[in-house]
Design a protein that fits this description.
This protein is of the alpha+beta class. It has two domains: 2-38 and 149-320, D-amino Acid Aminotransferase, Chain A, domain 1; 58-143, Dna Ligase, domain 1 (2-Layer Sandwich). The protein has helices at residues 2-13, 19-30, 36-40, 42-51, 72-76, 116-127, 234-248, 278-282, 286-303, 309-320, and strands spanning 59-63, 82-86, 96-102, 105-108, 113-114, 140-143, 162-168, 171-179, 195-199, 206-211, 214-216, 252-260, 264-271. The strands form two sheets. A seven-stranded antiparallel β-sheet has the order 11-10-9-8-7-12-13. The chain has a six-stranded antiparallel β-sheet with strand order 1-6-2-3-4-5, sandwiched between helices.
C-alpha cells in the first residue's frame, strides 16, 4: 500500500490528472449539467456549429422514427458514399460507413457488401437506443463521409484518424492524434486498440505514440513511424478547438476533429468527459497545464480583460509548445 501511495504521489508531482480530480475539479466545476445535451447529441452539436459558421461534415438528413426510415432513399439521393451514426452514440458503436455502391447494393469502407434492407435494419436498431448513452431512444444521422487527408495513408489502417484536443475555458491544453489499427477494427478508439499519438501544440508535429498502454514509435500495421509527422493546417485545428467554448458553453471539453482531403479541418463531436490517456501519449500531465490556464484566467479577470480564440491559442502555444511556432 505504501508503494502505491509513493507511486501516486510521484505521478501527482508530474501533474498527472486522475479520474477523481478530473471529475471534481474540472467536469463538475466547469460543465453545467443543463448544457450536456449540446455535446451528448451529435445532431444538436452539428446544428449549433453550422449556425456559428464552424466547419462540420455536411448533414444530409435525420431519421427520428421508424416511419421516417422510408425517407432514406430521398436523403441518400444519388450519393454513393455516406455515414449513418447514432446521435447519442459513444465509442464509435453503431456507425455504418458506406464507401460505394455495387450492383444495387452498398459497399462499406471495410469492403463488406450490404443490402438496402440491412441499412434500414441498422437505422431501426439506432432508433431503439441500442447504441445510445443510457439505452434511450435515439435518432439516426446521415452525413458526409470524411475522406482522410493523404498525410495519414502511411500511418493509419482503414478508418478515419481523428484529432482530440482538450480545451479548458477556451484554452487548448493538450492534443492527441488517434490512429485506427487492425486491432481497433478501423475505429479511432483507444480502448478498442487505436493508437494515441501526442501532438505538439505549437507546431502540430506528432510526438511518440501509445498503443494498448505501451509506448511505440511505429504503427503496428503499416510499420511506419508515427512520430515526427507534420499535421497540415495545425493553427486551423487549434482555432477551431478554442472556438468550441463559445459554441457549447462547457468549460472542460474534448474536441474531436478530422482532416478531410478536400474540406480541411472539420469538427466531428464534443465530449464533456474526455479521457485521460492523452497524458500518456504526450508524456505530460494535464494538471500542470490546467493550473497554468486557471492562473491566466485569474490575471485576466483582475485586469478586466477577456481573450479572443486567436489570443488563447497564441498563449497556449507559447506556454506549452515543445518547439517554438514557426513565424510566417
Amino acid at each position: 500500500m505504501f508503494g502505491f501511495w509513493k507511486t501516486w504521489k510521484a505521478l501527482e508531482a508530474r501533474g498527472i490528472m486522475g479520474i477523481n480530480r478530473r471529475n471534481a475539479d474540472y467536469v463538475l466545476k466547469y460543465n453545467k449539467r443543463s448544457l450536456y445535451p449540446i455535446v451528448d447529441d451529435k445532431i444538436i452539436t452539428k446544428e449549433r456549429a453550422i449556425a456559428a459558421g464552424i466547419h462540420v461534415p455536411e448533414m444530409y438528413g435525420v431519421i427520428s422514427t421508424e416511419k421516417e426510415i422510408d425517407k432514406l432513399d430521398e436523403i441518400i439521393g444519388g450519393r454513393s458514399d455516406f455515414v449513418i451514426k447514432p446521435a447519442q452514440g459513444a465509442g464509435g458503436d453503431g456507425i455504418l460507413v458506406v464507401a460505394d455502391r455495387f450492383e444495387g447494393r452498398y459497399r462499406t469502407v471495410s469492403g463488406k457488401i450490404i443490402s438496402h434492407e440491412e441499412i434500414e435494419h441498422q437505422i431501426s436498431s439506432i432508433l431503439t437506443g441500442l447504441y445510445s448513452l443510457g439505452g434511450h431512444r435515439d435518432r439516426a444521422l446521415i452525413e458526409y463521409r470524411v475522406v482522410p487527408d493523404q498525410i495519414f495513408k502511411s500511418i493509419s489502417y482503414e478508418g478515419v484518424p481523428d484529432i482530440r484536443i482538450i480545451v479548458l475555458m477556451g484554452y487548448p491544453v493538450m492534443a492527441m492524434l488517434r490512429l485506427p489499427t487492425r486491432q481497433s477494427g478501423g475505429k479511432a478508439n483507444l480502448h478498442q486498440g487505436a493508437i494515441g499519438v501526442g501532438v505538439d501544440l505549437a507546431t502540430g508535429l506528432t510526438l511518440r505514440g501509445t498503443w494498448l498502454n505501451t509506448i511505440i514509435t511505429k504503427h503496428p500495421d503499416t510499420t511506419n513511424a508515427v512520430d515526427g509527422v507534420q499535421l497540415p493546417n495545425w493553427d486551423g485545428f487549434m482555432k477551431l478547438a478554442a472556438g468550441c467554448y463559445e459554441l457549447c458553453g462547457l468549460g472542460y471539453i474534448g474536441v474531436d476533429m478530422v482532416l478531410d482531403q478536400e474540406k480541411g479541418p472539420l469538427i466531428l463531436e464534443l465530449n464533456a468527459r474526455p479521457g485521460l490517456n492523452i497524458q500518456i501519449a504526450n508524456d505530460c500531465g494535464l494538471t500542470l497545464r490546467t493550473h497554468a490556464v486557471e492562473a491566466r484566467l485569474e490575471e485576466l479577470k483582475a485586469a478586466g480583460v477577456t481573450e479572443t480564440p486567436e489570443e488563447r491559442v497564441k498563449f497556449v502555444q507559447e506556454m506549452f509548445g515543445h518547439i517554438p511556432p514557426v513565424e510566417g
